[in-house]
Amino acid sequence: MGWGDLGVFGAPSKETPNLDQMASEGMLFPDFYTANPLCSPSRAALLTGRLPIRNGFYTTNAHARNAYTPQDIVGGIPDSELLLPELLKKAGYVSKIVGKWHLGHRPQFHPLKHGFDEWFGSPNCHFGPYDNKATPNIPVYRDREMIGRYYDDFKIDRKTGEANLTQIYLQEALDFISRHQARQQPFFLYWAIDATHAPVYASKHFLGTSQRGLYGDAVREIDDSIGKILKSLQNLGISENTFVFFTSDNGAALISAPKQGGSNGPFLCGKQTTFEGGMREPAIAWWPGQIPAGHVSHQLGNVMDLFTTSLSLAGLQHPTDRQVDGIDLLPAIRQGRVIDRPIFYYRGNEMMAVRRGLYKAHYWTWSNSWEQFSQGVDFCPGQNISGVTTHTLEEHTKLPLLFHLGRDPGEKYPISFSSSEYQDVMEQIVPVVQQHKEKMVPGEPQLNVCDKAVMNWAPPGCEKLGRCLEPPKSDPEKCFWPH
After folding, report:
1. How do residues 108-140 score in pLDDT, each as one tens digit?
2. From 39, 450, 462, 479, active-site residue
3. How confident is the model over 307-325, as pLDDT tens digits?
4. Any long-range contacts for 177-184 (C-beta under 8 Å, 24+ apart)?
5. Is 125 one of the catalytic residues?
6. 83, 212, 360, 372: most buried, per Cβ within 10 A?
7. 45, 37 in Cβ contact below 8 A?
8. CA Rg, the chain, in Å?
9. What are phi and psi of 450, to 5 degrees?
10. What is the structure's pLDDT at 140?
11. In whole angstroms, what is the distance from residue 230 CA to residue 242 CA?
12. Residue 39 is a catalytic residue
């Protein structure tokens, strides 16, 4: 979902009443970011509190390339990484993920191997349908074993967009909450639904109800589901003991717009890019009785902060044997403080930009290649900014492009190199970047090698269902990442 998909952020259709109410009862973060403009690395960052270049969710096959975890990826989240649910166990928490995992589909990378106690969902996105010969359909798991596959058993109608998955995911969440409330056991629920990811889907009740078409139908169903989850917390009498945070893993995919993609509001470009539209996310914190209602925080936030903040809420310290990039947001949430911190924008193995305060400096710019663009792949439709949305990877390390995001949220007007404003601001930004790079120790890249033999041919549990497929011979090769 994009920053501009919510009514509270200005979506003209005003079709997110529950999220808008969540904001009116909680705290809105208009300056909140993901750690990467793509799904897998941002989710790895959320659960480890570390930049993807540290936790291994990047590629070195080419410079500044986005990479993720398709079916043929060999790698996944390393055992050396400490994930949030693993650490929360120390405080007696039980954890569940509902929906898309995306941190590796091979069994050694699965959620229950990395701290989660329960899982209902899939290891990959719901792409398909496939023929189960050249490519297998994606499995859906309950805990350690598959219970079916997308399209074969969990239907998604590619013609109408009808699928009941969000309703299934909603019920899984409600059941989990009620079970652990009854046991008076603290819980962590990671509700990682993916209805707004192309191919977009919604259940029959919501199809055709939005002014925005199918994508809007999916947004309305997600909004309705979040309303039901919050209402459940209230009805069970645990809302004042439960911290809830809503955000997205990357900006809206404008390549799929307008029928299968959302809105990034006033921001430049979308998913896959390190412009604001690719990495600034809708974000709302809700905690009745603890968070002052209707407040707006201009704290620069990042999904990695949810790792550190969650540990703080549980009375735990973050690991000290590694660099943790997330900060504790509780001072901003409870006391209204604004903590001075930079936001780094990474694409693959390259730091593309940095934000400090209201200023953002681009050290590299790239939307996508001329070759891809000529084939109709456009991450910035209708938003060509000369010298900014470049179709070649352009270096600006000696004279970064500088923008004031308060005056110019769309990154259209670079500040003049010769101005005193440019000189004064860059004097503050340059040492921040130098210190960051000097201390950076990249992790072992996990997204370099692909092999069709490791696809979801025979997931755990397939034997019980009689649904195992024969894999091809192993033939590992370098993954190709075009952008």
Report:
1. 999 999 999 999 999 999 999 999 999 999 999
2. 39
3. 999 999 999 999 999 999 9
4. 177/229, 177/232, 177/233, 177/236, 178/232, 178/236, 180/94, 181/236, 181/238
5. no
6. 360
7. no
8. 22
9. -120, 150
10. 98
11. 10
12. yes
